[in-house]
Amino acid sequence: MFMTQLLFRLLTSATGALLLAACQSSGDAPATDEAEAAAPRAVVTVGQVRADTLRDVLRLSALSAYPAKDILRATTTGYVLGPTPVPGQAVRAGQTVFRLQTKESRVLHLDRLTGDPRLKFSGIIAIPSGRAGVLSAVDKLAGDFVQEGEQLGVVYDRSRFGFLLDVPVTQLRFVHPGQSCRILLPDGRTLPGRVAEALATADPALQTQRYTVRPTGPVPELPENLAVQVELDRTAPRRAPTLPRTAVLTDETQTQFWVMRLLNDSTAVKVPVARGPEQGDRVEIQRPRFGPQDRILLTGNYGLDDTAAVQLSK
Predict the structure, then answer these.
(1) Domain 69-157 belongs to what topology?
(2) Signal peptide position in this chain (predicted)?
């Protein structure tokens, strides 16, 4: 009888312990699931690899210039008469820009003696422009006394406007006369251009050779010595897969590159890539070859580990 009661008590204790453990485990499961569901997820946007036309571009600095210009000089000693021209004024070839009165004419008032038909010389000398262009500088004003040969102003020939391009000797094989190029202005505008000619001199200190570049389309009003960028294609255009620059991640030394690809709607995995050159905000992806079904993280990918939990942005 005693043995039967002892066995009954042992069975009762074991059953109670098993029931208690089952209750505890069933009570912890919802808490674990809720914790996993409440874990923070990175909000990301996704996109696909796109085929773009890429160019291997050589970008160099250049300065705007008016290589053809006329310096208007006084042909006699005298005084400048009004009206005085203003800088920026357009002039025609042969148009009178300045007028001078000789000092003898001013003393004798020859310009006022109109009644004597034998007087053929009034002492007024016209200084015309030798070419059509723009008056870029005015050095003398009405009433100024000038000596013979003194500079009065400068006329730029706008039809010969261009840019001076200094090419390093290590890049000379990529530049040749007649080559098309793109001229990037500081305000964001782009002008089509063409390499005109090479000057037969090189800078001994910088080891650069100078070329002239001419715009091939309409030219806006630009001053001289304006710094611009000139782009030349080193190779023919080619089609290549690209991704936005923000999609390609790298380490501190920029020796390893990778992208984050969606494995499913909630998990992103790390995929090493071999990247090519950049063009604008696009980066060439040389390896691996992604398909149109591959979804690549474009934003929200920074700092994510492999197999990171993510949430698609709505």
Answers:
(1) OB fold (Dihydrolipoamide Acetyltransferase, E2P) (2.40.50)
(2) 1-31
Contact 133, 155 (CB under 8 A): yes
Q: Quick one: which of 124, 131, 41 has its CA closest to 90?
A: 131
Amino acid at 314: K
Cβ pair 47, 244 in contact under 8 A = yes
Rounded-to-integer distance, Cα 198 and Cα 212, Å: 7
- Each residue of 75-115: pLDDT tens digit? 989 999 988 898 888 888 889 999 998 887 776 666 565 55
Domain 57-66+160-233 has CATH 3.40.640.10: no
DSSP for 200-227, written as a single string: EEEETTTTEEEEEEEESS------TT-E
CA-based angle 295:245:59, to the nearest 5? Answer: 145
Tens of pLDDT, residues 113-150:
555 555 555 678 899 998 888 888 899 999 899 999 99
Identify which of 154, 164, 150 has the alpha carbon closest to the alpha carbon of residue 134: 154
Look up the CATH number of domain 42-54+239-312. 2.40.420.20
pTM for this model (two decimals): 0.56
